[in-house]
Amino acid sequence: MKIEMIFRSLLNLAVVGLLGFSLSLKAHHGGAVYDLTQEVTFRGEVTQFRFVYPHVLVYFSVEGEGGETVEWSGEMTTPNRLARGVGGGGASNIVRWTTETLQPGDAIEISGEIARNGAPSMRIRRIIDANGVALLGGTTLGRVASPVATQVMSAEQVGHGSDLTGMWKWNYNASWQNYAFTEDLPAMTAWARERFDDSRPTFGPRGVAVGETNDPAYQCLPPGVPRIYAHPAPFEIIQTPNRVMLSYEYQGWVRQVYTDGREHRQGRPPSWMGESIGYWDDDVLVIDTRNFNDKTWVDRRGLPHSDQLRVIERIQRTGENELAIDITVEDPIAYPEPWTVRRVFETVDWRLEESVCLDDESFTEFEDAVINFEDDQARN
């Protein structure tokens, strides 16, 4: 009876919270916003499941005492941990999560800590499905998470290709190459044209001041592929028999390109840099990158893309000290046909240095501080 009274009180509190708070849940909450002194359990129905970075979100409806429907939102740990069969606090699960683990309409029992401010949101600790399987928060019937099957070939099977190792820097011969891959705009769909027109880049003919841009890179978000090659910063190729690593000075990004015969995974959350799988075509390293989100730009002048983007890179030495990358962009939502460009790089005897990003607001504050300092110096 006591549990039922608590349950009803929480639902009433949730209804009140609906009047004053948005149903949307921010992608990353700190633990301080939740009441950690007690854990509550609801039974409801999934309305939306977002297997996204940085935290996985579940929205579910619960029937209130008077028959009204209360919509709740909950956050879990990262999609990477859930995909590995690891939950919050190091708990193991028998389920390796994917984008298909929960579907709208699924009946679930969900436990966790609710928001202190009365909003209908919670930090999820445990989820049990309609079959009694613990999707999160422990094992069921003594079972453990199944291993992930990965087809791995030997070095003899996959081959080594050519030696691409080294430090590489841009080799531009036109000013537009500092911000774009083609001088002229590629043909775009109406969907892409609308988004391009709404972009406010800091480079190119439509360039605006830093304080006015909506370039995701100026919010210190990942640049994506192929845009990372549009920035004038070097990168290093590190090569092993079954993997190639591309380490970029720009924001310190590293891409892991497996060349051991494995395929792209299914059910992964959309990502900023995509998932890259490689193979050798004689002396050419072919990198196939998929599973992007739609939040980055293709270049620095605002070319958009959708989550259907696929990027093919063909990397080869074209001279003792020269590297060429042929980049093909495929996106049926944004571009009526694929388009390909070539970027050329040359070897340099450099080191990769620290590259720290300042978002547009911080950068503007920094600029103001420099200007004020210079003004003070001039007056003195």
Order of helices and strands: HEEEHEEEHEHEEEEEEEEH
CATH class of the largest domain: Mainly Beta
Query: What order do the strands of the largest sheet run in, or round the barrel if closed?
Result: 10-9-8-7-15-14-13-12-11
Arithmetic mean of pLDDT: 84
**Backbone shape:** globular
Major beta sheet summary: 9 strands, antiparallel
Question: Which class do the helix and strand fractions yield?
Answer: alpha+beta
Count of extended strands: 15
Domain unit count = 2
Could you estimate the helical fraction of the residues in percent? 10-25%
Instruction: Give the name of the CATH architecture of the largest domain.
Output: Beta Barrel
The proportion of strand residues reads: 25-35%
Q: Alpha-carbon distance between the termini?
A: 77 Å
Number of helices: 5
How many whole angstroms does the radius of gyration measure? 25 Å
Low-confidence stretches: 1-27, 140-145
Concise synopsis of the structure shown:
The protein has five helices and 15 strands. The chain has about 375 residues and is of the alpha+beta class.
Describe the structure.
The chain has 380 residues and is α+β, with helices and mostly antiparallel strands. The chain has 2 domains: 2-136, Beta Barrel (OB fold (Dihydrolipoamide Acetyltransferase, E2P)), CATH 2.40.50; 155-368, Lipocalin. The chain is built from 5 helices and 15 strands. Strands 10-9-8-7-15-14-13-12-11 form a 9-stranded antiparallel beta sheet, with no helix packed on it. A hairpin with a 5-residue loop joins strand 2 (57-63) and strand 3. It is globular. 28% of the residues are buried.
